[in-house]
Amino acid sequence: MHRTDLTPEQLCEELLGRTLNDVDAEERRVLQRIASGQVMGLDAQEEAALHASFGDRLADRVAAVGGSWGFIIAFGVILFGWMLVNSRILEAFGLHPFDAYPYIFLNLMLSMLAAIQAPVIMMSQNRASDKDRIAARHDYEVNLRTQLEIIRLHKRMDHLFAYLDNRDCARSGEDT
Fold first, then answer.
1. Which residues contact 152 (CB under 8 A, 6 or more apart)?
2. Which PANTHER family does the entry link to (predicted)?
3. In a domain, 55, yes or no
4. CA–CA distance from 109 to each of 79, 99, 115, 123 (Å)?
5. pLDDT at 95 > cutoff 90
6. Which residue from 31, 38, 81, 164 lies 20 to 30 Å from 146 (Cα-Cα)?
7. Are residues 69 and 105 in the same domain?
8. Distance CA 56, CA 121 (A)
9. What pLDDT does residue 94 have?
10. Is there a single domain that holds both residue 103 and residue 122?
11. Same domain, yes or no, for 33 and 103?
12. Do residue 136 and residue 124 come from a single domain?
């Protein structure tokens, strides 16, 4: 962990040429972390998982299952099986369909499934959107920290080169 002797106000003045009041809250937080030597916070996945409720995790699972090829294939097999069981083919074996064509009960079940599944998937998409916002904020902070550290290193290199130039000038004055 690298700790600087400068305060966030001094860092802001030195690196950005502005006062701490002139920068936005995100930049202020980054400067405070740099001054304290604090390492980055949680990443987007960790932060989202930390705040996820049981309903959030359930919505993510429903969306993951409902949006897979396995679900589509299994659902197709179930629908085909339902239609087969409730077709006139079974009457040849002396069985009577409990939901004959036009499959009214099946339509009711599909409508209820869609009415429940659609909002659950939307909840999961909202959580994914929240994760993306957290990731964007995290990326912004990483980029800002990197930019500030590069500015800092550049200033140190300038000081070092100025020192070396002065030393060389002093030596060349002694040689004459």
1. 15
2. INTEGRAL MEMBRANE PROTEIN-RELATED (PTHR41386), MEMBRANE PROTEIN (PTHR41386:SF1)
3. yes
4. 11, 12, 10, 22
5. no
6. 164
7. yes
8. 10
9. 83
10. yes
11. no
12. yes
Report H helices in 18-103.
25-36, 44-51, 54-66, 69-85
Burial of 53 (0-12, 13-18, 19+ CB in 10 A): exposed
AA letter at 109: M
User: C-alpha 28: how far from its chain's center?
Assistant: 22
Place of tokens 């006062």: 19
Whether residues 79 and 132 share a domain: the answer is yes
pTM: 0.61
Asked if residue 70 belongs to a domain, the reply is yes
Cβ atoms of 117 and 38 closer than 8 Å: no
> How far is it, in rounded angstroms, from Cα 120 to Cα 122?
5
Residues 47 and 33 in one domain: no
> How many domains would you assign to the chain?
2
pLDDT in tens, 129-156: 988 988 888 888 888 888 888 888 888 8
Cβ atoms of 75 and 132 within 8 Å: the answer is no
